[in-house]
Amino acid sequence: MKNIVMILCLVFIGLSAHAQEAKNKNAKYSIDVNGNCEQCKKRIEKAAYGLAGVKSAVWSVETHQLDLILNEEKTSISAVKKAIAKVGHDAEEEKASDEVYDNLHHCCKYER
Questions:
Q1: What percent of the chain has a predicted confidence (pLDDT) above 70?
Q2: How many alpha carbons fall within 13 Å on the CB side of residue 33?
Q3: Does 104 score more than 90 pLDDT?
Q4: How far apart (Å, rounded) are the C-alpha atoms in residues 35 and 109?
Q5: CA torsion sign, 14 to 17 to 19 to 22?
Q6: Measured between alpha carbons, how far is 86 from 81 in angstroms, rounded to an integer?
Q7: SS3 content of the chain, % helix, strand, coil (to 5)
Q8: Partner of 75 for a Cys bridge, out of 2, 5, 53, 83, CB 3.0 to 4.6 A?
Q9: How far apart are the C-alpha atoms of 29 and 8, rounded to whole Å?
Q10: pLDDT in tens, 9-26
Q11: What is the DSSP secondary structure assignment for residue 109, as one 8-state letter?
């Protein structure tokens, strides 16, 4: 009887550990995003958070790095870069259109 209880406990613990691993689909990324000021920071972070699956988005004015945590089952790093480019900021290989870039506030225009 003790052996059966022990085996059941081990099976339960093993399945619980496996379920915890399967749940965690979050990934961390750091990408270069052009911008200049706090207005840019708000716009960039808002664009990232606008996508389902983005858990954290923090852009640094000093380093121009956007640190992301995202659920890869719901979105991709490529989708985040495209969303940021749509609001006027170049994100690595994804470039904002000239029309959107030209509509940025003068303090937000970075060297392209």
A1: 79
A2: 35
A3: yes
A4: 7
A5: negative
A6: 9
A7: 45, 20, 35
A8: 53
A9: 40
A10: 556 666 665 555 545 689
A11: P
Alpha helix segments (H runs only) across 36-106 = 38-49, 77-86, 98-102
Task: For residue 107, give the 3-state DSSP assignment.
Answer: helix
Alpha-carbon separation of residue 58 from 1, 14, 17, 18 (angstroms): 55, 36, 31, 31
Task: Report, as an integer, the average pLDDT of 76-94.
Answer: 97
Give the chain's mean pLDDT. 88
pLDDT at position 83 over 90: yes
Identify the burial level of 85 via C-beta atoms within 10 angstroms of its C-beta, where 0-12 means exposed, 13-18 middle and 19 or more buried: buried
Token pair in block for residue 35: 């911008």
The residue type at 61 = V
The distance from CA 7 to its chain's CA centroid, rounded to whole angstroms, is: 42
pLDDT at 25: 84
